[in-house]
Amino acid sequence: MTIINLSDGNSVLNQFIAEIRDKDVQKNHMRFRRNLERIGEIFAYEISKTLNYSTKDVTTPLGIAQCSVPGDDIVLATILRAGLPLHNGLLNYFDRAQNAFIAAYRKYGKDNKFDIDLEYSTSPSIEGKVLILADTMLATGASVLLAYQKLLDKGTPSTTHLVCPIASCYGVEYLSKNMPHKNITLWVGAIDEELTNKSYIVPGLGDAGDLAFGDKL
């Protein structure tokens, strides 16, 4: 698995990452969602550089222009609910993509141990397509792996891009060891060192779903 950390270079992405982390900026839920959307747009732009392109003749009012355009079939997949603003950002750029959604959550037991429950999924065929699977936080990596395995019920993608703005070192290592295919790239905006005994990323940003859509029961 290839790992690309966009924070290794300086770009406006760093500003958006800083704002989704900032506890004062987080009080504005609309801005939090919009920042995640803008982060998704930046990841989409970077991923677009890896696609296959072909030349297309485009008729303008004054003649014919030759334009290089991407030709891959893309499926955008998102883990609900925190991934929705990120998904919207990716979809703003890959507006012809098909879409898949998976509901996954932690079900806690004793001693802060938990299982990941997948309660719902919907997806088109991903056979031979470019799969982009997005989730705002990559903590243990278990949710992303299970979501990916579930999507494989719909076929085998030609290429997979995992998009996780905030990741833990543990989650990155877990996916590196356990993702079943080689042609996979993990895109992150920041990698944090600490994962608590409750599997919270530190410094992280808190609960992305709550910050985007309000507290849950």
- What Rg is obtained from the alpha carbons, in whole angstroms? 18 Å
Helix count from the secondary structure assignment: 6
DSSP strand content: 35-45%
Residues in helix, % = 25-40%
Instruction: Specify the structural class.
Output: alpha/beta
Number of strands: 12
Rounded mean pLDDT score: 93
The SSE string, one letter per element, is EHHEEEHEEEEHEHEEEH
Distance N terminus to C terminus?
37 Å
Largest sheet, strands/sense/barrel:
8 strands, mixed
Specify the overall morphology. globular
Low-confidence stretches: none
Which key terms come to mind for this protein?
217 residues, alpha/beta, 8-stranded mixed β-sheet, two-stranded antiparallel ribbon, 12 strands, 30% helix
